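Researcher: Let's continue the batch. This sequence belongs to Shikimate dehydrogenase, and it's 295 residues. Same format as the previous ones, please.
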Amino acid sequence: MTQTRDILRAGLIGFGIQRSLTPAMHMREGEAQGVDYRYDLIDLNERKLGPDDLEMLVAEAEAQGFCGLNITYPCKQKILPLLTEISEDARKLGAVNTVVLRNGRRMGHNTDWWGFAEGFKRQLPDADLSAVVQIGAGGAGAATAYAVLAMGARSLAVFDIDPAKASDLASLMARNFPEASVTVATDLQAVLNGATGLVHATPMGMDKHPGMPLPAELLHPGLWVAEVVYFPLETALLQAARQRGCRVANGGGMAVFQAVGAFSLFTGLEPDVHRMLRHFADLTQPGPLRLPETA
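Model: Same format as before. Here are the structure tokens for Shikimate dehydrogenase:
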């Protein structure tokens, strides 16, 4: 006699997400826990939609009985007005990557910042956080900035091609972390010369957005470099950083641990972190994640 299994549905809304490993991580963990779990990709690019169609997509997911949605580029901030509740962390960050759909309510959370911090600590456990530069001030950038400051960064300089976005994020983080120095960077070369670390938090380097977010010659051996992009896992930035003697952290850590947090919120079950790390490593072979399973 077979046991009746629960059936859960979730999804990911974003642009150019066909190579995302999030569905596989969620569904494999669900299978390991004895749950029938379907996780769909809702790709704006494939459906020829944009961020302005978010309301329609969320309503569509609710009508289909989804228990939750993950939200990625370019919708992590656009989703905010559509929510009925927002967690304290998400409110401080001004960005949501996880929406729990329950009893007609839309509850926004941010598992990105914790995911980035957990992956970072496993890959660069003794990183010098005294002077960090971040490229990118969007939804992912809000999470990484919050994470590095929560981990104890004393100085954070934020750079973005849109100076207004950089200024808004710097102001937000300065209010959340008044003990730290949070500034806007206008000259990348100048701030990187005296920096101990670089966080890259833009889509540059993704399959749909190939390239480097800065000239490779600005990298120097005194920098560690942390990436948020994970498809591909080895981005052009990380390749250039390794060649110049930098210690690096790939985007796989953030990918796994944000999924750990979202899985728990969606299902109410406690995910097995070590198992999800192994799942991700299997999915990214022959390019392993290179994360130890214990902190």
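Researcher: Any comment?
Model: The mean pLDDT is 93.
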